[in-house]
Specification:
It is built from two helices and eleven strands. With 150 residues, the chain is mainly beta. The two termini are 32 Å apart. The protein has two domains: 31 residues, no CATH class; 94 residues, OB fold (Dihydrolipoamide Acetyltransferase, E2P), CATH 2.40.50. Strands 3, 4, 6, 9 and 11 form a five-stranded antiparallel beta sheet that branches.
Length: 150
């Protein structure tokens, strides 16, 4: 079973309002379970010296003047902490107005002390950055809006 099939199962769960799904296929068991919405979430933020954070602060969530109605969303595939850059000293992976390619890393979501690179599934121009750096994100939350290339 590949990542695309797992994403399709997650989409089906969302579409039909399922909180849990268990599937067995060729001896492999996959169990998907949504977090309970009324339970408070606990997030772990990596310890970075305050001086380093101030020196490397990235701009807040940004919005272009007008995102078109045809823009595509780049969503978080997991719950975690959103990072626009690979390190506090580094430049952000993408900026508004920049063209991204399919498979290009656009951000990192840290989950359980693991840094997960999030890649664009659409080619086009970034028209909106929907999350502030170091902000907690939920599964399926929109991180970026991209106006697809024609």
């Amino acid at each position: 079973m590949n990542l695309k099939e797992v994403k399709e199962m997650i989409d089906l769960m969302n579409e039909h309002g399922l909180a849990e799904l268990e599937l067995e296929h060729d001896g492999t068991v996959i169990k998907l379970k949504k977090a309970v919405e009324h339970a408070p979430a606990v997030y772990s933020v990596p310890s970075i010296p305050a001086a380093a954070m101030r020196a490397a602060e990235l701009p807040a969530a940004q919005t272009a003047p007008a995102a078109s109605s045809t823009s595509k969303d780049v969503k978080s595939p997991m719950v975690g902490t959103f990072y626009r850059a690979p390190s506090p000293e580094a430049a952000p992976f993408v900026e508004i107005g920049q063209t991204v390619e399919i498979g290009q890393v656009v951000c990192i979501v840290e989950a359980m002390k693991l840094m997960n690179e999030i890649k664009s599934e659409v080619r086009g121009k970034v028209v909106e950055i929907c999350v502030d750096n170091t902000e907690p994100v939920e599964f399926g939350q929109v991180l970026f809006r991209v106006d697809p290339a024609k």
